[in-house]
Amino acid sequence: MNSSVFFLIWLILFILLLLLNEKKVNYEHFTENNVDNFDEIYCKYHNNTFNQTDFYKKDAERIYKKLGSWTNKILLDVGTGCGKHYKYIFDINKKNNKFQKIIGIDKSKNMLNQAKINCSNGYFINDNVLNDKLFKKEELTHITCFTDTLYHNSLDDMKKILANFNYWLKDKGYLFIHIFDRNKLDPSPREYSQFYKDNDGKKHSLTYFNTYTHDAIWNDIDKDSVIYNETIVTKNKKMKNIKTKLYIPTEQNKILDIIRNKGFKLDEIMSMKDVGNDDINLFIFYKI
Fold first, then answer.
1. Is residue 226 within 8 Å of 236, Cβ to Cβ?
2. Label partner for 89 (CA 20 to 30 A): which of 19, 221, 222, 260?
3. 16-50 confidence digits (pLDDT tens)
4. What mean pLDDT is predicted for residues 221-229?
5. What is the CATH number of domain 40-177+256-287?
6. Which of 106, 66, 69 is nearest to 86 (CA)?
7. Residue-range domain boundaries for the chain
């Protein structure tokens, strides 16, 4: 065998080895047109910074008290992010098998990479719920839309998304959604976060981790939107600043009216104070 042939075989084997060892996350759907607003590094910080286990567990337990009488139950976790809520819903289902399928969806592939680490057996979709073709009419029985998921969208886009939710849900299907009280917005990601005021008198949260600190503050833009400003500083003084615009109106009824107008009726409001959250409540609606 001459040297050129040997080199070619070696090169092919090397490439095959790389492909076999490449760590991949497979999704049921993947949309290349999605613009990922969260880079890989931030998603890793986010996964560690926001980790309120009692909060996620409480929401998951509440879902299983609203199961309905459908034979085949399918739950869609919208804006699943790093999969924190998803993991608890999924783990409970392994014990009681109430849901035929639990789907996590997010338009950020980098967030879903973290979700797959947190729940390796999960079923995830990388797409945008503005896409009305994602599911068939009345295919789902439950939809969760937790934390700030809905608020990443303009009020007009919220209307389209909620119309999709209504279309996808079966009659009397449940929608679980966190609704913010803008007058009580809390910047802290953890129960042990500390507070201080800057020179302008604005309230910051400061959270210490082993290798970095997380500083956060809410800034008003107008009556319908705010910015959540995060500053991460590592031990070697590297800094990362993230500004996330969220459409949280000063009038909470603006969001509630949109939900009602898209064919939902309020079933129950559940406080989150017992798990350290004063600025949001869990609202449970059903399709009418």
1. no
2. 260
3. 443 444 344 443 443 444 557 799 999 999 999 99
4. 97
5. 3.40.50.150
6. 106
7. 40-177+256-287, 183-246
